[in-house]
Amino acid sequence: MNADNGCLKNAEHFDHQKRIQISANAANIMKTTSSLLPVPEWHIGQTIHIIDGPFIDFTGEIYEIRAEQKKLRVKIDLFGRKTPVELEFSQVEAIDAVD
Q: Is 40 exposed, middle or buried (0-12, 13-18, 19+ CB in 10 A)?
């Protein structure tokens, strides 16, 4: 019986090690894939046009860039007041060229 338990422990250890290796390989593939995607060049003060979401067709000015989250903090003119909103990169397009 101990031999069976030993085989089972070895199998579990091997399975666990294999899962760790597969997880590490998957993480590397994800890193490589995400680094191949184009990253928009944003800058503070840049004017953008909102193309998706509840503020579609508004324009605004970037005041903060959160690159890790792929989000921008933008001030839009809402009812005559500058209102901060957070948008994903995919929700906006540049109006003016990057310097």
A: middle
Separation in Å, CA 41 to CA 9, 48, 49, 65, 91: 52, 12, 15, 10, 14
Residues 44 and 25: their CA atoms lie apart, in Å, by 36
- The answer to whether the CB of 96 falls within 8 A of the CB of 81 is no
- Tens digit of each residue's pLDDT (9 = 90 or more) over 60-95: 999 999 999 999 999 999 999 999 999 999 999 998
pLDDT at 55 over 90: yes
Q: Which residues contact 41 (CB under 8 A, 6 or more apart)?
A: 98
